[in-house]
Amino acid sequence: MKINRIDHIAIATNDAAELKFLYHDILGLNYLGQETVESEKVETSFYDVSESKLEFLEPTSPESTVAKYLNKRGPGLHHIALNVEDLDGYLVKLKENQIQLINDEPILGAHHKRIIFIHPKATGGVLIELCEDKK
Q: Could you give all domains of the chain from N- to C-terminal order, each with its CATH number?
């Protein structure tokens, strides 16, 4: 098991297109495109930042966890994603140590990566995503 890098930092927003002007046009980040993640009811927009990315999460349904997050906390940092090798190994270790998870089994996230979320109560207040590159 190994953490490779920060995969991305996710920001919740109600309007990702509005932010494109700042992040792409002004700051010069390479816009990588959008992807809908049906299982999470979000539209994602990614920007390249060296070996990591910025991800903007825009809800596609009021039932989305991101929509609920925005209603409760407003726009801003949503989670930090760590790219790992052996996601299943990490999942076993987390469960053995009774670390609180959001999802007990991996789900498919953006770019078809397998992901799990560690609850902020277990991490010092930040939602952490562990993601594994598509094999």
A: 2-132 (3.10.180.10)
